[in-house]
Write a structure and sequence with these properties.
The chain is mainly alpha-helical and 73 residues long. The protein has helices spanning 22-29, 45-49, 63-66.
């Protein structure tokens, strides 16, 4: 039985919704992707500080959480 990751890299660690990270999509599929939206976004310190320690560097925020817009999650 394979253990599930507490923070799947394809989901936002704050709301659990898909983060649409092109870098993760490319890693998972092997299909070249255009530059990710997250590589051209400035993340607020407040949003970054909300990421649980266990998810830091493992899962990207979704665009809604990154922009401090409440997620439906």
């Amino acid at each position: 039985m394979q253990a599930t990751e507490p923070y799947p890299p394809q989901n936002c660690p704050l709301c659990g919704q898909p983060n649409q990270c092109a870098m993760e999509i490319e890693r998972a599929t092997g299909i070249k992707q255009p530059p990710c939206w997250c590589s051209q976004t400035v993340f607020s310190a407040d949003a970054l500080n909300q990421i649980p320690d266990a998810a830091r560097g493992k899962a990207c925020l979704c665009a809604a959480c990154a922009s401090a817009t409440p997620c439906a999650g």
